[in-house]
Amino acid sequence: MTRTATEPATRVTAQRFEEGFMPAQKLKKCLDSTGIKYVTITHSLAYTAQEIAASAHVAGKELAKTVMVKIDDKMAMAVLPAAFKISFDLMKKAAGAANVELANEQEFKDMFPESELGAMPPFGNLYGMEVFVDEILSQDEEIAFNAGSHTELIKLAYRDFERLVKPKAAKFSAR
User: Fold this and answer.
1) How far is residue 53's CA from residue 65's CA, in Å, rounded to a whole number?
2) Smallest Cα–Cα separation from 137: which of 53, 81, 72?
3) Cα separation of 121 and 99, whole Å?
4) Average pLDDT over residues 2-9
5) Residue 95 CB burial class (10 angstroms; 0-12, 13-18, ≥19)
6) CA dihedral 157, 159, 163, 165 (to 10 degrees)
7) Nearest to 137 by CA among 64, 66, 83, 84
8) pTM of the model
């Protein structure tokens, strides 16, 4: 979905529901079924990690972003602190792969039908894909991440995220 700079966010929100977007429903159902405690944070429309952290009043170190990567041509999720970037050399080592590259939006846009493009939660296990989490996130008690839309985050205990997703933890990012 594209939006012009003058189009109001409320129209974008209404359009999401008309198009069949049900942000966070699959994720919330998963969390609710396991009895995990979480908080939903609604914020003004934001696309970049810095905008999201500021709008949602979440500490930058707790905000995780999900980056889609191809590891030896297989789609995977890399979850890292919002202010960090992937080191592809470290990611290759962590994955034991010959090749790691960013996936382009065309390659994954249809994989998350209930999420807005670029706002998918880091629960690759719900989509049958491997998830890598940078070990620096495990040092925080909580983790916050996009919940399927550009206006909503979910915040929960890191240990619960780890228990549900079972990501491979490794050092693969840097500021």
Assistant:
1) 11
2) 81
3) 24
4) 39
5) buried
6) 60
7) 64
8) 0.85
Q: Is the pLDDT of residue 15 over 50?
A: no
Q: DSSP states of 103-165 as a string?
A: PPHHHHTTT-TTS-TT---S-GGGGT-EEEEEGGGGGSSEEEEEEEETTEEEEEEHHHHHHHH
With 0-12 CB in 10 A as exposed, 13-18 as middle and 19+ as buried, what is 151? Answer: buried
Instruction: Give the model's pLDDT for residue 27.
Output: 84
Structure tokens at 87: 């080191």
- Give the residue, 14 or 22, on which the prediction is more confident: 22
Tens digit of each residue's pLDDT (9 = 90 or more) over 108-128: 989 988 889 999 999 998 889
Q: For 25-174, which CATH class?
A: alpha beta
Instruction: Give the type of residue at 62.
Output: E
Q: What is the pLDDT of residue 103?
A: 97
Residue 127 is encoded by which pair of tokens?
């989509």
* pLDDT-above-70 percentage for the chain: 87
Other beta carbons within 10 Å of 85: 12
